[in-house]
Amino acid sequence: MRSTLTRWLPDGLAARFTLLLACALIMANVLALLVLSGERARWGRESRDSRELERIIALVPVLESIEPGRRAVIAASASTRVARVEMSDRPLIVETADTKRSRSLQEQLNQSLAPRDVFVMVGNRQQPGSRQGGERRDRDHRPQKKPGPEIIGVSIRLASVNGSARRATPNTAIRPESAHASWLNITAKGEPALPGAASQLLEDGVFFLILGLSLVSVLAVGLWFVRRLTQPLALLAEAAQAAGRGDRTARVPEQGAREVRAAASAFNSMQAQIARFDAERTRTLGAVGHDLRTPITSLRIRAEMLDDEFREPMVRTLEEMTVMANDLVAFARGNDDGEKLQSFDLNETLVHLCKERGANYLAGGAIQFKGRPVALIRAVGNLIDNAIRYGLAARVSLAHSDGYAIIRIEDDGPGIPAERMMTVFEPFVRGDESRNSETGGAGLGLSIARSIVRAHGGTIELHNRKPSGLLACVYLPMTE
Fold it and tell me: Which of 344, 352, 339, 405 lies closest to 381, judged by CA?
């Protein structure tokens, strides 16, 4: 019983290879989407960070050169859609976050703004100390289900107008006499992280465009390659079917992959060996038949010189020997008498055969069959002769079902005992042991018929009819 997965798989090898390529390609594109999304998010983050750092580094000297009372207005004018700049008497970020990115941004700012105090924090929500964060907490105390946009917070202590800047710790108290704010607070909103980048690619249709182009290109090349790969296997299957029908000339081109070439070479060698064996057997038995006929003919001539009392029994014996020799040669040769495969109308052939043998034929439609017509006439003729000889009459019909041409031969005889149903196909075995050579041959008729039918890839079945009679069914596979 096939597993559930196997039932859903296509039957053809080329289709399975194509499905494998498609699945592998889809998985590769999904992985590429994830990697590309991550890289896109990283590139965008680094580009945004670089722009913000440049703005901050350029803004700090400008603000420090202005009177403290005017710094708030200039800072507000520097705000953008994604970044808010403001002056305050307290830092928005009281301590640099212990994250790799926060420390990296702080180090880059310190390289240009030292000895000023710089604190950086990168996260997904407003940090404590900012007005936006407080207002947001007042409005909604419920935790967010999804992380919000990335927030970069920067706090820088500006120097006075005369250029003096005092290094301070985050807890340094602001002098009461300080009439103006000295902390520059910047809040920049970034883009969502990896999931958002992947979603953006999906929304833009870029992923599906790349996937579609990849599938079309790879599957086109893959399908062509797979068909080239499996074509030798199809040729091997056709040659094997032809060999099963007795065609010893069927050969397979030795092309394709190494394993396929090895299989084709083995098949061709097998066909050549079988052909040599059949040819040698035919030559040997032909010589035996010829050697037997010569002494039989000599004895026949001598028997004619005897008196009638002795001549008639001897002539009958010699005739029996002639029949047995001819049947033996026919059985050994089977249908390998050099006849070539050809396409012919099986219905028309049976019409002429039944007319010659005196059988009743139920005419059917034309059925084109590829085989050896002379050999099949011999096989079906043996069955018809047995039906007429032992069953008193023969009725023949032809049908086509499930890819087989089915020939039925019925008679009204006593039938064959069930225990002997299979043994009657053996050489020199008769269906009725009481029969002698006057009522039948040497017991090779069914053996010859089965040998010919098997050479065409078919089978013969015998069934007893009720109340009496025998039914012989010949199944011949149709070929395209």
Answer: 352
